TrEMBL record:
<keyword id="KW-0560">Oxidoreductase</keyword>
<keyword id="KW-0503">Monooxygenase</keyword>
<dbReference type="InterPro" id="IPR011251">
    <property type="entry name" value="Luciferase-like_dom"/>
</dbReference>
<dbReference type="InterPro" id="IPR050766">
    <property type="entry name" value="Bact_Lucif_Oxidored"/>
</dbReference>
<dbReference type="InterPro" id="IPR036661">
    <property type="entry name" value="Luciferase-like_sf"/>
</dbReference>
<dbReference type="GO" id="GO:0016491">
    <property type="term" value="F:oxidoreductase activity"/>
</dbReference>
<protein>
    <submittedName>
        <fullName>LLM class flavin-dependent oxidoreductase</fullName>
        <ecNumber>1.-.-.-</ecNumber>
    </submittedName>
</protein>
<dbReference type="Pfam" id="PF00296">
    <property type="entry name" value="Bac_luciferase"/>
</dbReference>
<feature type="domain" description="Luciferase-like">
    <location>
        <begin position="1"/>
        <end position="317"/>
    </location>
</feature>
Amino acid sequence: MKFSLFVHMERWDEQVSHRQLFEDLTELTLMAEKGGFSTVWIGEHHAMEYTISPSPMPLLAYLAARTETIHLGAGTIIAPFWHPIRVAGECALLDVISNGRMEVGLARGAYQFEFDRMANGMPASEGGAALREMVPAVRALWQGDYAHDGAIWKFPTSTSVPKPVQKPMPPMWIAARDPDSHNFAVANGCNVMVTPLMKGDEEVVDLKNKFEAALANNPGVPRPQLMVLRHTHVHAENDPEGWKIGAQAINRFYRTFDAWFGNKQTPENGFLPPSPEAKFAERPEFGLESLHKTAMIGTPKDVIERIRYYQELGVDEFSFWCDNSLPHEEKRKSLELFINEVVPAFR
């Protein structure tokens, strides 16, 4: 079992500066590297303070200079917002800067809010076409001269400059949920990253079964890696009420996610308040007890037990998602407990 850190700068009000958030993200990454984590993942989001990352590349390039072993993962690049030549070149440059530690995840995108601003209002549901066209184009550009005549992009003979350090090419990941996404990833030799979001471990089983079905549909293809991403908060054994801190924070995160995903309000200077708790009176998955069971919340012993179950299912990487609305000090304590008491159980 490999472990990775999924992290963004997240800002809930103007009391914490962007510079401080940048330093906090750096500290968490350095802790993760020292703790033996395989990868730090940073995604792409636009014009929203609660998930700050207009491009993962500058952050990852900086972290490449501050680290030695941890891989730098773009998790994920939103395919409809990019051009294949730019994806190939920027990812390859990060691979050169990090001396072969770049990994890239690609996704179709989710927030209609972002598509309204970044893709002229294109329906977010149509983003999959760009993803499917992007993957083979980027890989071809990494290999050498390539001309592209697709439905979305057309360009004459070009190549990735620079070329990646990793041979034959850096690891590529696909954010997958439905069977078609799993099939596409496996057929194209890509690793798969999944998140059960607010659903329980039965969703992990369902996503793993979709992954296994894709393997069966593509005989002869080497088995790619499977990563599960979960909101994670670890509390001390002697703090029996500690789980409530994590559950309350993750509840706030998902109510904010709901507000942005609903795309019914105009944010003010990048802020959008969480949807009111009353909205979820009939939605038990938002309840604290439910989140205690679904998110990776608990003592080190609790967390070890659940991750062992994931390992038995065939999950290769567990990603510690620390975006949760908690102050940095709480995140640091949780990650420290995970590193000191959970990770050693899998070594």
